[in-house]
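Q: Convert this sequence to C-alpha cells.
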Amino acid sequence: QGKLVESGGGSVQAGGSLRLSCATSGFSSFIRNWGWFRQAAGKEREGVAGIDGTGRTIYADSVKGRFTFSSDNDKKMLFLQMDSLQPEDTAMYYCAAGPLLGRSELLKGNYGPWGQGTEVIVSS
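A:
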C-alpha cells in the first residue's frame, strides 16, 4: 500500500523555477519506475518525466531541457526541478509509481498509485 505525497508547487512568473518533491512510503522497493505527470484544466493527464530503476530519465518533448527528474534512494523521495517555466506548464502535478522492472513509457495507464497532486501556476 504505497503512498505518495507531492509538495513544492506554487505560483511563479514565466521564466521562474520550482522544485517539486514527492515523498514515498510503503513501497516494497524504491528501485522501480517513477513518473511525474500533470493535468491542466480541461485536458487529459499527461506524462512529464520518468525515471527507471537505473536512474535513466525520459521527458516529454514539451519539457525536455527545462525539467530534471531526480531521486534520492536514502530519503525515498522524488524531485522535479522545473526551470524556465512557461504559462503552458500550469497544471496540477502528480507523482506516481510505475513498474518495478524495465523502462516504462510515460503512459498514465502504466502508473499507480498516485499522489494527491500539487498545483503549479505560471503567469505571464
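The longest strand covers residues 18-25.
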